[in-house]
Design goal:
Length: about 160
């Protein structure tokens, strides 16, 4: 049974909406991943550098101040490393990739959508894609608003697609 005009439009609108949601979500999670990775690396690298410099300064003199700075900075670097400072970046990147994969599936479904298609079959496929989208959303950690804003600007400028 072919699709009526209203069924075709409803399914097309649902797919286009899902495609847009996936585009913005993927880009926001990519932006968040980049920022979290930089921040995570800095939380290990900078304190380690400060610790090394302070340790060196402590070895040149007899000031306990430099030894204390070295110990604190070393503890911060070790804690950040132990807690997995870049783990959040990895989680964001996983979400970004999941949205990108789903976006490609939705785009393919949009390209194959035709008025001659069987309504039941197309609706089943759209529901499957929607369930996949819901599953991704359910396991995501929230993306920072700043990352979404950066992603939105990049998409509007055509720098992301």
């Amino acid at each position: 049974m072919s699709l009526t005009d209203s069924q075709f439009e409803a399914l097309k609108n649902q797919l286009e909406s899902m495609h847009g949601n996936c585009l913005y979500s993927a880009q926001a999670y990519f932006e968040a991943s980049k920022r979290a990775e930089l921040w995570g690396r800095l939380m290990v690298f900078m304190p380690a550098c400060i610790s090394a410099i302070s340790g060196f300064m402590s070895s040149l003199g007899d000031r306990a101040f430099w030894g204390g700075i070295a110990a604190v900075a070393g503890a911060v670097a070790a804690t950040a490393s132990f807690l997995g400072a870049t783990k959040k970046a990895s989680d964001f990147l996983t979400s970004a990739r999941a949205y990108t994969i789903l976006r490609h599936k939705v785009k393919l479904e949009l390209q194959f959508l035709s008025a001659e298609a069987d309504y039941g079959e197309v609706r089943r496929r759209v529901e499957e894609l929607n369930a996949e989208y819901t599953q991704i959303v359910a396991i995501d950690i929230p993306v920072p608003n700043r990352s979404f804003g950066v992603a939105s600007r990049r998409i509007e400028q055509g720098a992301a697609s």
